[in-house]
Amino acid sequence: MFDWEAAWHAALYGPGGFFARGEKPSSHFRTSVLVGTELAEAMLALLSRVDAALGFPPVVDFVDVGAGGGELASAVRSLASGPLGERLRVTAVEVGPPVELAGVRWVREIPSCTGLLVGHEWLDAIPCPVVTGPSSDPWITRWWPSLRDGEQAEVGAPRDAAWAAAVASVRGAALAVDYGHLVSSRHFSLTGYRAGRQVPVVFDGSCDITAHVALDACAAAAGGEHVLVSQRDALAALGLSGSVSGSGWDWLESASRAGRIAELRDPSGLGGFGWLLHGCGVAVADLLPPLPPWRPNPARNPFP
Predict the structure, then answer these.
(1) Which residue, 278, 59, 286, is CA-closest to 168?
(2) How buried is residue 292: exposed, middle or buried, by Cβ count under 10 Å (0-12/13-18/19+)?
(3) How far apart are CA 54 and CA 212, in angstroms?
(4) 264-300 confidence digits (pLDDT tens)
(5) Pick the CATH number of 4-286 from 3.40.50.12710, 3.40.50.1980, 3.30.2160.10, 1.10.357.10
(6) Any idea where the domains of the chain sit in the sequence?
(7) Is the pTM of this model over 0.90?
């Protein structure tokens, strides 16, 4: 029997694997991190609320799990200022070769975190077993009950375990940002990406291999107080509305920023990503106001 999980893991993280050899997401697909610094601004706004809820500890962490080229970690470090910036420790967690970035430390394992841990498009890169229905796998029984005879499904248990372990390392808040699906809308989504194009899945290390994340299952595995909302709504709640003002060059800069925010909040694109936010010793209500629950668009491709 073909071991999908082992082949997937070797293709990404084994010797000569896609990420192990140093491939960076920025070379292959566009993510929110690559649009501009606005996502980092939102992370700092959220971190400021976490910091206040923790009572302003002497050192406050921003941990970027699956950091890729370190774009998000670097932007957060460079934008942070004032008392928060003076106490901020930024850590990039990545299995590939580190990138030299001022003020960012690189590690291979998730450290303890007092502050905000973010897994931005991390869970989709965790390999999973693949089964064909009918299946008696307990994860499938609970989280993919609609699986029909002959249909394939990714078993999200490894992602559940990884997210639960990450959340357990945090005092403050943990945030997973990803594309995905809910138990009511499961669909087989395993695919490959190379140089900005969707390609057939091959396990030779030549492409990224990814699949939608069962964020509802991850939420249940980690437990505790949490919310699952859309990126579109979360960014607005953190102050990124994209209004245009001023005149002349100020207007042009404002319009450019508004365009970037509009891309981040596009409900048919990046704005449709799910934000799974766990409060770890702090109340989620202190971090985000009540927002509509996330409703994914199962028809869209993972990356715009």
Answers:
(1) 278
(2) exposed
(3) 33
(4) 999 999 999 999 999 999 999 999 999 999 999 754 4
(5) 3.40.50.12710
(6) 4-286
(7) yes
